[in-house]
Design brief:
globular; 17% helix; five-stranded mixed beta sheet; alpha+beta; six-stranded mixed beta sheet; 4 helices; 13 strands
Length: 222
Amino acid sequence: MSLVQTAVSGFIEYPKIDTLFERDMATFVVDETRLKKIVLATIREWDVTEKIDGTNIRLMLSESGEVTFGGRTNNAQLPADLLMKLFQMFPADKMRAALWVDGTPTQAILFGEGYGAGIQKGGSYRPDKSFILYDVLAANKWWLDKAAVDDVASKLGCDVVPYLGRMTLDEIVALVRVPFSSKIGNGMAEGIVARPIETLFDKRMERVIIKLKTKDFVKGKR
């Protein structure tokens, strides 16, 4: 396989993740009195993971067994050294073994971050570039639960985003408001991403998922 990033179609982009709160556009600090979506208040507990400061990656396995790599969109370009790492880490036979249950051909998309030295401020995570997994969509309709995502990561021998626990919205805000240490490397965490315990969709059929960064509580234009 030649080291070329292939344009793909038929594979969805990762749904946009909204910040938990609306933002005060004068200070750019989040307004804790205004949730981005009112439905968020109806969810009692959330599964919370660390938000990794990296570049969005999609690993795409077709029903014919071919593997392609891409960024957040089909037009996004990946750094050559990161692309080479992905080719080394995720050969097609390994992807099929991890994702095809009983050998049954299934389309799957692995969503993650390219992270590490040279990507954003990722030098504190690790000295090289690699991939860390945070979500898997199977057959273009099933979002795998945490245990299944962990199992896929284990079979592929890749990292998975650190799990921080099950929390209420108040507990999430208390955690993120003050800088806290990343579970990877020796730096500070960027923030969190949180999902309902079961995958939920709002009335617009958009997936319910939130993010919150420590810098959301600091004045200054983003």
